[in-house]
Specification:
Layout: H1 18-40, H2 54-66, H3 70-89, H4 94-118, H5 125-132, H6 143-167, H7 180-191, H8 194-203, H9 205-232, H10 242-266, H11 275-304, H12 307-313, H13 317-321, H14 323-338, H15 351-375, H16 380-390
Helix pairs in contact: 1-3, 1-14, 1-15, 2-10, 2-15, 3-9, 3-11, 4-5, 4-16, 5-9, 6-9, 6-11, 10-11
Length: 420
Amino acid sequence: MQETSTTGNPSPARERIPALDVLRGFALFGILLVNIEDFSGPSGFGLRTAWDDAPDRAAVWLLKFAAEAKFRAVFAFLFGLGFALQLRRGAGDHRAFVARYVRRLAVLLAIGVTHFLLLWEADVLTSYALVGFLLLPFARSSARQALCASGVLAALAVMALGVIVLLATPRPGGPNAVPPEKVETANVYEHGSYSDVVSYRARQAGSYFGRIVPTAPSTLMLFLLGLAVGKAGLVFDPAGHQALLRRLFLGGLLLGVVANGIVTVYSPRLMSLPKLGRLPVVASYVVGSPVLGLAYLAGLTLLLLNPAWQARLRPLAAPGRMALTNYLLQSVICTTLFYGYGLGWYNRISPLAGVGLCLAIFMAQIVLSAWWLFRFRYGPAEWLWRSLTYLRPLPMRVGADLGGTPRGGEDPLTRDGHGH
């Protein structure tokens, strides 16, 4: 998230909260692990190459159980947490903060729409920008109020999805029938030119933006969870909240494992279950991914309180500081590798090989991000986002004056910090 100061300028780098960069780096890698399946082949049954080796089946199951939707939940939570930290920084002038925040979301919306049209159909930035406006009414709420609102949204999501599932009828042709639109998508991505892909996504824009509406409550639920944690001040003193972090980790892990186990086992045959038997699966689907994702964050935060683990996790900080740039770069790399206008690996990479490819891409991003941040203050996308938000080009190279920002080469995990 973008920092702001009470003077209306971006926060100096020394005021970052280093652990948040590590958490963002961790989430960024998880997002790549999840997204590689969509990048690498079609999602429809019967369209995707069947990989029957035991290691590939294990990789598919593990990613579905431990990663799918969990890291999107983590990113949404961190977005809400960032909103809370910006509120703290801009508390001196609420009207100026609101104006700056609206510009910020407008720029993010433009980046998201461009990302969707030119790179990838599963963009999340557009959704975050639009749902981000719904955080403004909660700007002056307490941590308890934000938490209660998040709980209400979770309950509403369970009820709404439950009604949909209870009223749903089996798909014509059976659960394994392939919708024609999925066949068209697979053909375009596997064989189309770049202009074919862009034109296809432009035609699908209405459907894409329409999908944001039913997912908005769950996204806002996660934003509000992050807002509640930020307003409670846990992020500023994790060492003083170790008991709470342990409870969040253990409780979230237990509930998350149970709920995701239910989803993993029963969701493929959901429509064959008795109608009332579908409701526990629906509830597990709504809460399972968020609570397991939050358990990941709580556990990682506890590890960061240990100097030895802090040293081990330090490499995640650099890509975390450039999360937007690296998110967009992942789309550039993966579409170039997989789509027909690139190397054409679409539907040709096994799940286990995909995990190895994720590791290689992310290791390269760690090295590139560290190299870049030694020389420059922001990632390219972050610089554009901030400059348009503040309506002026900000200094890019390290050492340029920006309210006392320290020079480059500084270890991002040894900075003191009070804002982000």
